[in-house]
Amino acid sequence: xxxxxxxxxxxxxxxxxxxxFLLMTGALAGCDSSSDPSGHGSPAKRRPSxxxxxxxxxxxxxxxxxxxxxxxxFDACVVLSDCPExxxxxxxxxxxxxxxxxxxxxxxxxxRSWNYARSGADVADLPGQMAQAAAKKPExxxxxxxxxxxxxxxxxxMTTVENFRRSFEGALKELRxxxxxxxxxxxxxxxxxxxxxTGRGNPLGRQIWKLGICASMLGDADDVSTRAQARRARVQExxxxxxxxxxxxxxxxxxxxxxxxxxxxxxxxxxxxSRWDWFHPSRDGQExxxxxxxxxxTSAKPPA
Length: 304
What we know:
By secondary structure, the protein is of the alpha/beta class. The chain contains 13 helices and five strands. The longest helix has 27 residues, at about 5-30. It is globular and about 60 Å long. The chain starts with a helix and ends in a 7-residue tail after the last helix.
């Protein structure tokens, strides 16, 4: 049958509409924001927006301290006794001017600062201390621990780096369980070899060290043989490794600030060491620790 002109026009119009529909469908598919730009049609994956780090509060209003004998002010006032009033972290001594005094002032220190450090404590004791601190919901927790882990009866008995890391991680988890928004200031472990070098020139210090204070480093203080030097180097290396752990673990917590090695780098003089044991900080030494902590806590940026 012969096709009429009207029929041909109808077919032409239908073909044009079909082509326009296909072109429109393709254009819409190409404009779909979920399409793969390569043209394969698979949905593009959107990267999650990074979580912003919380702003560091440079003037916290309450402080809890955990750690060892240094934070308890051991041998700073009386021989073989704690003296928490001169603690660099929470003490009330006007000369030392602890971190708590500098941040929250004398009238409030008694009510808004707590010291859970214990003389003789090592890193394994830290989770328990953190649990006590967390219960107070402090705005800042100070940590100074590690000297006793290196100060064993012998170099062989020092806390392993793996166990040190495990305990410190556990301590932060314990804190976060109860006080998720508390800030943490972590002090580096002091340079024990430098303390040996400073104190060994004092006759009284050498005699006191024979009672067993930090035997791994201070034992046989006058022995400078190759073997003794190797032992001290091993202890020194362990302290450096502990500080790396403190920095690494703290760096993974958005509300934690490590001191950048400031305490390890500080050169304690004879005046800044206890006249009873030539190892623990004196009042003057506690004041220096308070200055370091205050500078780092109130700094706009964390130490490098």
